[in-house]
């Protein structure tokens, strides 16, 4: 039986590569990260490094399965991984390979992809009349996996309607997220129909 303290010796006696060093991850977009590393120390390579592999897994979000990128040439010390979930934290490991097979995984590194614009509108939008010249608009935040960042505020847009067509300018009112998810729009014309829409925004828009 191999004791925990003997695990490094077991890898070495089998001829597997050592562990990549200084593994780091940076987010370069809302769906792409760059992983970098330093090859295992020469004394622990136990042969010639033939390739690297990267394992990554979402800590949160819709897809929590482990994914593996294999066949990364031995000459590489960084690699970009794309098609990730937006504004999602990932756990990443790197392995070096020799002809014998893969060595031990590096210590996991955590990285979060960048924010992006929300891909869904606010929910449960309701509009009610307050008086002859004002309305109250209320709503709920977009579903969490479509927010793609921290919601900073909302834009409430309204326009006068005649014969189902917009008439005049579209007026935009900003509502900061710190406020309650409702707003009063005043100064409207009595007995007039208005169209109201709401959009959430992050730092990306």
CATH homology group of the largest domain: Immunoglobulins
Query: How many individual domains?
Result: 2
User: Which consecutive residue ranges, at least 5 long each, have pLDDT under 50?
Assistant: 1-13
Radius of gyration: 27 Å
Q: What is the mean pLDDT? A: 88
User: What is the 3D shape?
Assistant: rod-shaped
CATH topology of the largest domain: Immunoglobulin-like
- The helix/strand class is mainly beta
What is the percentage of strand-forming residues? over 45%
What's the story with the biggest beta sheet? 4 strands, antiparallel
In the sheet with the most strands, the strands line up as 4-3-6-7
Helix content: under 10%
The CATH architecture of the largest domain can be given as Sandwich
Classified by CATH, the class of the largest domain is Mainly Beta
Domain Fibronectin type-III: 19-116, 121-205
InterPro entries: FN3_dom (IPR003961), FN3_sf (IPR036116), Ig-like_fold (IPR013783), Type-I_Cytokine_Rcpt (IPR050379)
Keywords: Disulfide bond, Glycoprotein, Receptor, Repeat, Signal
Protein name: Fibronectin type-III domain-containing protein
Question: Strands, helices and their partners?
Answer:
Elements: H1 7-14, E1 21-27, E2 33-38, E3 51-58, E4 66-73, E5 78-81, E6 89-97, E7 109-112, E8 123-131, E9 134-140, E10 153-162, E11 165-176, E12 182-185, E13 193-201
Antiparallel strand pairs: 1-2, 2-5, 3-4, 3-6, 6-7, 8-9, 9-12, 10-11, 10-13
Organism: Micrurus corallinus (Brazilian coral snake)
Keywords: Disulfide bond, Glycoprotein, Receptor, Repeat, Signal
GO molecular function: cytokine binding; cytokine receptor activity
């Amino acid at each position: 039986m191999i004791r925990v303290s003997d695990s490094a010796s077991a890898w070495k006696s089998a001829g597997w590569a050592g562990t990549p060093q200084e593994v780091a991850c940076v987010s370069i977009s809302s769906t792409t990260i760059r992983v970098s590393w330093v090859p295992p120390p020469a004394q622990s390579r136990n042969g010639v490094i033939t390739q690297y592999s990267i394992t990554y897994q979402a800590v949160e979000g819709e897809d929590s399965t482990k994914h593996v990128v294999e066949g990364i040439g031995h000459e590489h010390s960084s690699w970009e991984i794309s098609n990730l979930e937006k504004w999602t934290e990932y756990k990443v490991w790197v392995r070096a390979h020799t002809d014998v097979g893969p060595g031990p995984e590096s210590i996991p590194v955590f990285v979060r992809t960048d924010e992006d614009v929300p891909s869904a509108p606010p929910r449960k939008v309701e509009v009610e009349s307050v008086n002859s010249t004002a309305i109250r608009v209320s709503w709920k935040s977009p579903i969490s996996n479509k927010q793609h960042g921290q919601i900073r505020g909302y834009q409430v847009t309204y326009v006068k309607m005649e014969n189902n067509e917009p008439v005049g300018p579209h007026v935009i009112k900003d509502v900061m997220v710190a406020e309650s998810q409702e707003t009063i729009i005043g100064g409207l014309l009595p007995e007039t129909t208005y169209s109201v829409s709401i959009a959430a925004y992050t730092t990306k828009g």
